[in-house]
Amino acid sequence: MSNSGDHVVSRRAVLGGAVLGLTGGGLMGGGLAGAGPAPGRAAYAAGGGGSGAAAGGPGFEPVDERSVDAVASALDQELIVLRRDIHRHPEVAGQEQRTAALVARRLRAAGLDVTTGVGGHGVVGVLTGVRPGRTVAYRADMDAVPPNGQVGGGAQPAHLCGHDLHTTVGVGVAQVLARLRHRLTGTVVFVFQPAEETLAGAAAMLADGVFARVRPTEIHALHCGPFPVGEFVVTPGFGLPGQDRGVVTLTGSDATARARRLAADIGALGTVAPPATPEALERLVTDIQTPDGPLARFVFMQAQAAEVEGGAEVRLSYRCWPEDRYVQVREDVRRLAQPQGAAASVAFPNDPFPAMVCPEREGLALRRHLRRTVGQERVGTLHAAVPFNGEDFSLFLRRMPGTFSFLGVRAPGASIETSYPHFGAFAPDERAIGHGVRAMAGWLAGRTRT
Fold first, then answer.
1. What is the reported pLDDT for 38?
2. Per-residue pLDDT for 26 more than 90?
3. Per-residue three-class SS string for 192-233
């Protein structure tokens, strides 16, 4: 995901998603030993996977939370080492060779059927259980945040959006379920996606036939978020906004001055601004969990004047919720440009990038599962979209239902910037890895049976 702040960014912004903005910002990283709840049997003992009879055969014991925790416990430290390895070698969109090779080796060693080079450096691993059942998919993104996608700017690429952690969780889930294959029903397809930060990776993998051989009925994903480590926030009916881009071209001797005034007028269409202080970040986290709250409807607008040969341009990029507001915002931009007469032309060259809207049925099912397995007090619900981010996971959800949920990575007592993606201080509590592995392994194993 990408962030919005004072600097020019690529295509991403705040809270797990990509933002095609004119300005940008970011989140946190790094584990703190001894802080917060640790993943383990006590947290995951409730709620089993059912009896042998329910699984369809005498003597067959399906995957349950106890078996997941037993296997995951043996992998916890190994996965932290893996995350640190990926973290030390950040690779931006289109350059994920090392990360992809590392993932592929791990999946092959676990016994998965692995395909590489899907949509660039994408990796797909297929795990088939011993009993027939449904086919479900899990997606993890691999690329790092480039310097111009970091809040305040950065000197070099860095894993400030948590994709190193996402990749590690995905590998961990695959390893856990592979070791429990003798108790697994159905098939799980693991999709390790490149180029999420540029919003290009999902489209590239789909164009390359990522699901041509094994087609899942649903797909799931986790993303780091500024919530206490060990907590989860589900997103039924919500998600992240899409993005629209346009340009107004002005001609004439005073085009630059008029473009600056028009950029200010277009910017005023916005109803929200990126959080600039820790207090504002805290308020944002509260607002997105408030039903019918201040972010139920919004426009996040960025407009900038630029001098060009023969005149000037106003380049604009915006996000809105609900998604049907794009029509009205485009009309408003044209209305504001109309007084310029023939000296101005307005163009929106492409359709808006689609919003990620998570289906309610699957999101509510995941909430029930998590409340039963990790505890009701550790499961929150998103009631608004984060205005400053987008996600190309939206393209997968346009093909099939699924879930996209936030994994809490904020260490106890840590400032919110340490858990908010794209900030230079982003330092997630690494114990979130174990929580994510256990939650998703249990969830996916259950979904292959239902």
1. 65
2. no
3. EECCCCCCCHHHHHHHCCCCCCCCCCEEEEEEEEEEECCCEE
Q: So what's the pLDDT on residue 57?
A: 59
Q: Would you call 368 exposed, middle or buried from its count of C-beta atoms within 10 A (0-12, 13-18, 19+)?
A: middle
pLDDT of residue 19: 36
Beta strands in 341-397 (DSSP E): 344-347, 356-357, 379-381
Whether the CA torsion 157, 351, 245, 363 is positive or negative: it is negative
CA-CA distance, 408 to 2, in Å (whole number)? 17
Residue 45 has pLDDT above 60, yes or no: no
**pLDDT value for 37:** 60
pLDDT more than 70, % of the chain: 88
DSSP state of 146: P
Laid out side by side, the sheet with 298-308 consists of: 298-308, 311-321, 244-251, 344-347
CA atoms 59, 65, 66, 67: torsion sign: positive
pLDDT in tens, 280-332: 999 999 999 999 999 999 999 999 999 999 999 999 999 999 999 999 999 99
CA distance 3 to 13: 2
Sign for the pseudo-dihedral over CA of 431, 437, 438, 440: positive
Q: Which residues pair with 135 in a beta bridge?
A: 187
What residues form DSSP beta bridges with 298?
A: 321
Can you give the pLDDT at residue 40?
60
| Local structure of 387: helix, strand or coil | coil
Which domains does the chain possess?
A: 41-236+355-447 (3.40.630.10), 244-347 (3.30.70)
The pTM score is 0.89
**Of 231, 225, 88, 89, nearest in space to 166 by CA:** 225
Rounded to an integer, the average pLDDT of 221-250 is: 98
d(CA 442, CA 10): 36
Sheet holding 185-193, edge to edge: 113-118, 122-128, 185-193, 131-141, 218-228, 402-410, 232-234, 379-381
Closest CA to 410 of 97, 154, 28, 3: 28
Cis peptide, bond prior to residue 428, ω within 30 of zero: no
Residue 29 pLDDT exceeds 60: no
Helices 360-373 & 432-447 angle (0-180, nearest 10): 120
Residue 203 to residue 396: CA distance in whole angstroms: 9
Tokens read off for 388:
């400053």
